[in-house]
């Protein structure tokens, strides 16, 4: 986990996971940062001020993406299902199944809660789904085709994977796996 200076990419602080863990989604909620691991069913908790590891939690299945709606943790696992977890007990509060009309949207990856919707990367696709958190229905798609040609990383796994929303300034950022660049985007209505 890194804190980087937005304008320059300079690393200000970082915390390494032990080598056996493959780090996945993370989210900041009420002063704590929660981080998933891919297949260990184990998450880590850090103090957002100090980056100190202050605890851990468990969940079932794989960990892919993580975000929050200000109350609950919201977790994806590579299926079309998204779970809402209580941020203290880590019990599942509710689960939604994501559909675009009648079609299941599988391999939901990195998540971001943006203005009352869940934005989600679909693994190996150049588009972001906008999902209704109440019922899992896709409201629309953000097509980012062409963005990967701006980064010139030639690797099959260098896919779109990373969405961050700065609520205070209403700014939306995207990046990809192995990408050396981060983009601020504005979504057309
Ligand atoms: Ca995110």
Kindly describe this structure.
The protein is mostly beta strands. It is built from no helices and 19 strands. The strands form six sheets. A four-stranded antiparallel beta sheet has the order 3-4-5-6, with no helix packed on it. Strands 7-8-9-10 form a four-stranded antiparallel beta sheet, with no helix packed on it. Strand 4 and strand 5 form a beta hairpin. Bound molecules: calcium ion. Calcium ion (CA) binds near residues 111 and 164.
> Order of strands in the sheet with the most strands?
3-4-5-6
> How many strands?
19
Largest sheet: 4 strands, antiparallel
Give the termini distance in whole angstroms.
33 Å
Task: Summarize the helix and strand pattern as letters.
Answer: EEEEEEEEEEEEEEEEEEE
Query: What general outline do the C-alpha atoms trace?
Result: globular
> Using only CA atoms, what is the Rg?
16 Å
Instruction: Give every kind of bound small molecule, once each.
Output: calcium ion
* Average predicted confidence as pLDDT: 96
The assigned structural class equals mainly beta
Q: How much helix is in the residues? A: under 10%
| Number of H/I helices | 0
Quick summary of this structure?
The protein is mainly β. It has strands spanning 2-4, 11-14, 23-29, 32-37, 42-47, 53-58, 66-68, 73-76, 81-85, 92-97, 99-100, 103-104, 108-114, 117-122, 127-131, 138-143, 160-166, 171-176, 183-185.
Features:
binds calcium ion, four-stranded antiparallel β-sheet, globular, 189 residues, single chain, 0% helix
